[in-house]
Write a structure and sequence with these properties.
Blueprint: H1 3-13, E1 23-35, H2 52-65, E2 69-75, H3 78-84, E3 90-94, E4 107-113, E5 118-126, E6 132-133, E7 138-139, E8 143-150, E9 153-161, H4 177-199, E10 203-208, H5 213-216, H6 221-226, E11 237-239, E12 260-264, H7 266-269, E13 272-279, H8 284-290, E14 300-306
Parallel strand pairs: 1-2, 9-10
Antiparallel strand pairs: 1-14, 2-4, 3-4, 5-8, 6-7, 8-9, 10-12, 11-12, 13-14
Length: 307
């Protein structure tokens, strides 16, 4: 049998190494600070007023980020997502409690790039994270879950934007009103993680946790609650870990202890390339000029390999 025939046979029966079939997917989180769909109009009080060029700048950073799956926070409405992540290029999961007749608010979303290695299989709201903030009678934001498929393998992503303004204070017990509300979100977050852990699939929780985990490390009340080895297989990892932000539009005093994270169970972490972790920084001159019109958060991403 000549070499060309041998090659044809190997191809037909699939005897080449499966490593050649490996797929790499980049997963990211990005809080885009009160993103409205209308130029020249703030989403709500004290929100940035963006012009057309600002949306083009956001699209440039979207392309530099190069992510296949992105957990988004502070989306004003589906049309706002469309301005940066058009439906011709991205599949979108948006919080189903959005009501166009209600007062403007911010919501979570997940987008999956079309034509890339990741496919959106299903999505839905995680309503348990929407709890009452008794101080003003308003509810917190829902989470968004998405089942993603890469190269025939599936994993879960949960996009979160937890209650703000309890960055390092006690949650057990919680006395500050914001901390009381964040404490209410711990049980539903843990329940989601535990249920997906039981499925045996990799899971990623990505978003704005509004919690400076690195202040207390592994003993942080929220972290300790979700990473409690129950079920026994549960072991969580996070990025960044003990690493300051360098985001030029984040207030200098908030850079030491970031609040945006990507969290992985062991099956997900086994696929992570830690060296691929990145915080995409806005260009200094552009950041100085536009500030929060870009965002006060920089996006973060990491790559996972599926074989």
């Amino acid at each position: 049998m000549n070499s060309l025939v041998k090659l044809a046979v190997l191809l037909s029966v699939g005897l080449f190494s499966t490593s050649s079939l490996a797929e790499t997917v980049r997963v990211a989180t990005w809080n885009i600070n009160n993103l409205n769909d209308k130029s020249g109009v703030p989403l709500r009080d004290r929100a940035p007023i963006r012009v057309d060029a600002d949306y083009e700048a956001l699209k440039r950073y979207r392309d530099l980020l190069g992510a296949d799956v992105i957990a988004l926070q502070e989306m004003g409405n589906p049309a706002a997502v469309e301005r940066v992540f058009p439906s011709a290029e991205y599949d979108v999961a948006f919080a189903k409690d959005y009501d166009p007749s209600a007062e403007p608010d911010i919501y979570a979303a997940i987008v999956v790039r079309k034509g890339g290695p990741a496919k959106l299989v299903q999505s839905g709201d995680v309503e348990g994270l929407q709890v009452m903030h008794d101080a003003d009678g308003r509810t917190t934001r829902r989470g968004i879950e998405a089942l993603i498929e890469v190269g025939g393998k599936q994993f879960w992503v949960l996009g979160v934007h937890l209650k703000s303004a309890c960055f390092g204070k006690s949650l057990v017990p919680a006395t500050d009103a914001n901390c009381v509300t964040l404490a209410k979100q711990m049980a539903p977050l843990e329940a989601w993680i535990d249920s997906k852990e039981a499925s045996g699939l990799p899971l990623i929780v990505a978003g704005d946790f509004n919690r400076k985990f690195d202040i207390h490390g592994q003993t942080d009340h929220l972290w300790a609650e979700v990473d409690d080895s129950d079920p026994s297989s549960l072991n969580l990892w996070r990025l960044p870990f003990d690493r300051a932000s360098e985001c030029p539009t984040t207030r200098e005093g908030d850079r030491k202890h970031p609040i945006d994270f990507l969290v992985f169970n062991q099956p997900a972490w086994d696929r992570v390339d830690p060296q691929s972790y990145m915080e995409l920084l806005y260009e200094e001159e552009e950041a100085a000029e536009l500030g929060n019109r870009l965002s006060d958060h920089c996006p973060r991403a990491v790559e996972l390999r599926f074989e």
